[in-house]
Amino acid sequence: LLVASRAGWMSAQQMGMELLSKARDAGAATLIPSSLQGVRTASDGQVEAALLSVPGESEPLEVRTGAVVNAAGPYAGVVDALLRGGGGEGGGGRELPLQNEVHAKAVLRDDLSAVPGDAPMVVWTDPVTLPWSEEEAEALLEIGGFEASLAGSLPGGFHLRPYPGKPHSLLMLWEAIHADVAVPREPPEEAELRGSLFAELTLRALSRAVPALGGYLGEDGSMTANVSVDGGYYSKAPDNLPLIGPAAGGPRGAYMCAGLSGYGIMAANAAGELLAKHVTGAPLPEAYAAGFLPERWESEEYRRGVESGAVGKGFQI
Asked: pTM of the prediction?
């Protein structure tokens, strides 16, 4: 059991809106909805314009620019291939080994005050067996597949954190519930979150760590809590380090900022600052900039090193 008693709290949505507001104050503009169709380059391979598909327009919208940044999150691999290939008139290169995995969270309104509102973040790291009745466990085993796995020992890693309010809510996460979900390179817009099932399973697991949460499970095993579920994807490279810098194999002026895995909000501002240094030609931090370059995946030696464990990996959340 890990208790992070000094963990801070912030609103990712408010941070995003603040950054967007400041960008617009500085002259930035947004075009929503639209999608990148490719880039146009000069004879020397330098990006000259981005070509965008806009609803209602028969021809691509051309936005003249000397730099294009791929910050497409779970679609970064698709955009990278576009910049490398026909859409981008780039130089080819190897496909980036970006992986997507489902990430979900459940928010429970704690009407029973099962957890104090000022409690710290709690992470349960040991394996756990969910509290099923004998009949429930037998039924799960009969179904087979994912459901059958729920009757046995499951990986730990479930999180709990109070969310301010009156009454306060509980933020609950458990990545193990989606470990079996295969996500294609171009993922669906709506991730398979398993909805109320995800919430119930996470609540059952957390009731092992906080028995008072069992008050939200009825005598028949049903969940009686008021819970909402949302989520999306984590996108990461096998070394769990971000991809920040010039896009390997793409035209000059193509950049990438992606693969921030489960630490995207925490690292977003620093990643944006590093990317800006690449784009503007400012001096780069010697201590770490080279370690995040996308071109590291062009090296077969680096790929083998990651696979064998000879190359260290970044922090995994």
From this structure: 0.88
CA distances from 30 to 11, 26, 221, 231 (A): 22, 13, 48, 24
Interatomic CA distance for residues 67 and 159, integer angstroms: 40
Longest dimension (CA), the chain: 72
d(CA 190, CA 188) in angstroms, rounded, equals 5
pLDDT in tens, 288-312: 999 999 999 999 999 999 999 888 7
* Model confidence pLDDT, tens digit, residues 246-277: 999 999 999 999 999 888 888 999 999 999 99
Residue 148 near residue 266 (C-beta atoms within 8 A): no
Decide the pairing of beta strands 68-70 and 254-258. parallel
Kind and range of the H or E run holding 136: helix 134-143
Burial class of residue 104 in the structure, from the number of CB atoms within 10 Å of its CB (0-12 exposed, 13-18 middle, 19+ buried): buried
